[in-house]
Amino acid sequence: MDRGDGLDGETIADGEIGPDSVTDANGETDVNVAEDANGVTDADGVTDADAGGVALFVDGPNVLREEFDVDLDDVRRAAEAEGPLVTTRLYLDEHATPGLIQAAEARGFEVVVTSGDVDVKLAVDAARLAAEDRMDTLAIASRDTDFKPVVETANGYGIRTLAIAPGEFGRSDALRNAANGSVTLDGDEESAAESDDGDADAESASTR
After folding, report:
1. Is the distance from CB of 70 to CB of 63 less than 8 angstroms?
2. Max CA separation in the chain (angstroms)
3. Tens-level pLDDT at each residue, the chain (208 residues)
4. DSSP per-residue codes, 110-155
C-alpha cells in the first residue's frame, strides 16, 4: 500500500492532483476536493450541511511525522467507524510538499494549507462547524493538548467527540480524556464513557 504520510512528500501511485487551490485575503490556501464518496461538497468542504455525520480534522504537522508512520487511509477509516464522513480536512503548513498534498487529495482529503498557525485555523474551523450543528461527531487527529478546549466546546453542543492519536507514544491523555471516545492508530480504542465507569488506565478494546 502506498502511503501519503510523513513530510517527505511521497506520492501515491496513480494518484490524481486535486482542483486548483484558492488563496484568500489572509494568504491561506485551501485546496478543495470538489466531491467525495458521499456527494458534492459545499464551500466549506461539508458534503451536506443539513446531514449528520463525522467531521474529520487532521493536524498534519503534528501527526504526519516520520516516527509515527501514519497512513492517511488508517486515519480516515478510524473516523468512518463512527459514521459517514461529511468532511475530511487535512491541515498543513507552508512547508508541506506538493507530493504530500497530492497524496492527501488522492485519498479524498480536503487540504488546507496555511501560512499561519495550523492549530488556530483547525480549532476555529472545527468550533465553527460545531456551533453551526453541521456534524454528529467531531474527530480530531492530533497529539496536541491545545485542542482540548475545542473538544470540550463540541461536547457542550451535544456533539460526540473522538480523539485519534498517531500512536501509543503520540497520544495526549488530556485530549483523550476530554473526548467521548479515542482511537490509537496502533490498534487501541477506548470509550470515555466506559473509562469513567472503571479504571482510566484499563486496557482498551481493539479498534474496529
Report:
1. yes
2. 50
3. 333 344 444 433 343 334 444 444 444 444 443 344 334 344 455 444 445 899 999 999 999 988 889 999 999 999 999 999 999 999 999 999 999 999 999 999 999 999 888 999 999 999 999 999 999 999 999 999 999 999 999 999 999 999 999 987 767 889 999 999 999 997 555 544 444 443 333 333 333 3
4. EEEEESS-HHHHHHHHHHHHHHTT--SEEEEE---GGGHHHHHHHH
